[in-house]
Amino acid sequence: MAKLPLEVVRAYIAEELPGAQAWAKRRGLELAYDDEQLNLRVPLLGSDRNGDSEHYLLEGQLDDYRVLPPVWQFLHPDTGEEIGSAAFPAPPSEGMNGVGSIFLPNGGNPAICARFSRLAYTPGTGPHPEWGELTGWDQFVEGQVYANTIGDMLHRIDLEVCASTERMEALP
Amino acid sequence: MTPETEAAAKQGPKKEKLKVEVFAPRKRKPKKFNWDPEMLVGEAAREAAEKFEYAAGNPGLSKHNEVLDNNATLAAAGVEDGDELTLTDVGGGV
């Protein structure tokens, strides 16, 4: 059951979307937002290896935003299907100047492991069910990645995709 | 040589400020900064975060999609006059 009326969610998104779209334009990325489904998708590119980069498709499902964080996940870059680990970039092998990765293989239940990622809290499959109430997702915790707008989340995820050299698993 | 020019000569050539534009992923427009090349990346990032009114976080900067080392000077991190940088949270995954 929805926690927030759709018009409230749409108002939050409308406030943040221009910044996120400007970020995407600067990056040369095609951010698609479906206002009916409260869903955004953006194709991302992994690190260039010998002129060949892995393609990724990031999806953010925004129902109940901002009471709850988005459901961020990676989908098959060509079909848009959920395919689990093969859709996810592996954590950057060379790191990012000492910044810890947010891409967690999690025993076949991959997740973006950050407080701004709803799937990180999922009991049973998420890596951090102990975080408890999702409604505290936008509180700052010292040392942990902090992104509390759509643009900031996209930027952080994209930075790490850019530094990743391979997928968690080969595409089916 | 006057005392003033002698003092200036001892300090070596004066380093020009770096004029950079910083973007925040949540905002459409950048802000301009004039930073000393010897300023630490982390200090510059904190100043930018404040200007963009970020209330909390672990501010850092990225250039061409690479995270800069917060403990390096802007010059050592490769920041050059005219660069475009992006405000980036450098907190870790958990």
CATH architecture of chain A: Roll
Total DSSP helices of chain A:
2
CATH class of chain A: Alpha Beta
Number of domains of chain A: 1
Element order of chain B: H for helix, E for strand: HEEHEEE
CATH class group of chain B: Alpha Beta
CATH superfamily of chain B: Phosphatidylinositol 3-kinase Catalytic Subunit, Chain A, domain 1
- N/C terminus separation of chain B: 60 Å
Number of H/I helices of chain B: 2
Q: How many strands, what sense, and barrel or not for the largest sheet of chain A?
A: 4 strands, antiparallel
Tell me the radius of gyration of chain B. Answer: 16 Å
- How many structural domains in the coordinates of chain B? 1
Termini Cα gap of chain A = 34 Å
From the 3D structure, determine the CATH topology of chain A. Answer: Ubiquitin Conjugating Enzyme
| Amount of beta strand of chain A | 15-25%
Largest interface, with counts of residues having CB < 8 Å to the other chain, equals: A-B, 38 and 27 residues
Spatial arrangement of strands, main beta sheet of chain A: 1-2-3-4
What CATH architecture of chain B do you see? Roll
Shape of chain A: globular
The CATH topology of chain B comes to: Ubiquitin-like (UB roll)
- The multimeric state of the shown protein is heterodimer
